[in-house]
Amino acid sequence: MKLYTLTPNEGSTKNRKRIGRGTGSGRGGTSTRGHKGAKSRSGYKSKIGFEGGQMPLQRRVPKFGFKSLNKVEFKPVNLDTLQALSEQHSLSAINLEALVSHGIASKNDKIKILGGGELKAKLDVTAHQFSASAVEAIEKLGGTVNKI
């Protein structure tokens, strides 16, 4: 067997459709484009989302909701996260730099301490916001709360 004797299997390949090569080809005349209309002419291009004059989907669906431009997004950090951080790295004061350096927040995040979980260590916590339950839990153990 030689490479030049190899051929594709019978029926596995087809000849491409040769359009516009005369009436004898079976695909002459209108060249499979049908009769008249913009789609039959050269240079036809429809707009994206155009539905033939029907009301487009993005205009049929009702609009709702509102996003305030002035809303401040906070990164939530629970008390159990602070407890784990203080145990792993033996910290007594947790501030923005500590949270950023240990991968809990990024440097542009505003941080809110929430009261989820249990706190066992006395900590000095500095953040942008605190929930009432978080302040109560931190101060109950003798820690301090500092708002930036």
From TrEMBL:
<feature type="region of interest" description="Disordered">
    <location>
        <begin position="1"/>
        <end position="51"/>
    </location>
</feature>
<feature type="compositionally biased region" description="Basic residues">
    <location>
        <begin position="33"/>
        <end position="44"/>
    </location>
</feature>
<comment type="similarity">
    <text>Belongs to the universal ribosomal protein uL15 family.</text>
</comment>
<keyword id="KW-0694">RNA-binding</keyword>
<dbReference type="GO" id="GO:0005840">
    <property type="term" value="C:ribosome"/>
</dbReference>
<comment type="function">
    <text>Binds to the 23S rRNA.</text>
</comment>
<feature type="compositionally biased region" description="Gly residues">
    <location>
        <begin position="21"/>
        <end position="31"/>
    </location>
</feature>
<keyword id="KW-0687">Ribonucleoprotein</keyword>
<dbReference type="InterPro" id="IPR001196">
    <property type="entry name" value="Ribosomal_uL15_CS"/>
</dbReference>
<dbReference type="InterPro" id="IPR030878">
    <property type="entry name" value="Ribosomal_uL15"/>
</dbReference>
<feature type="domain" description="Large ribosomal subunit protein uL15/eL18">
    <location>
        <begin position="76"/>
        <end position="145"/>
    </location>
</feature>
<protein>
    <recommendedName>
        <fullName>Large ribosomal subunit protein uL15</fullName>
    </recommendedName>
</protein>
<feature type="compositionally biased region" description="Polar residues">
    <location>
        <begin position="1"/>
        <end position="12"/>
    </location>
</feature>
<keyword id="KW-0689">Ribosomal protein</keyword>
<dbReference type="InterPro" id="IPR005749">
    <property type="entry name" value="Ribosomal_uL15_bac-type"/>
</dbReference>
<dbReference type="InterPro" id="IPR021131">
    <property type="entry name" value="Ribosomal_uL15/eL18"/>
</dbReference>
<dbReference type="InterPro" id="IPR036227">
    <property type="entry name" value="Ribosomal_uL15/eL18_sf"/>
</dbReference>
<comment type="subunit">
    <text>Part of the 50S ribosomal subunit.</text>
</comment>
<keyword id="KW-0699">rRNA-binding</keyword>
<dbReference type="Pfam" id="PF00828">
    <property type="entry name" value="Ribosomal_L27A"/>
</dbReference>
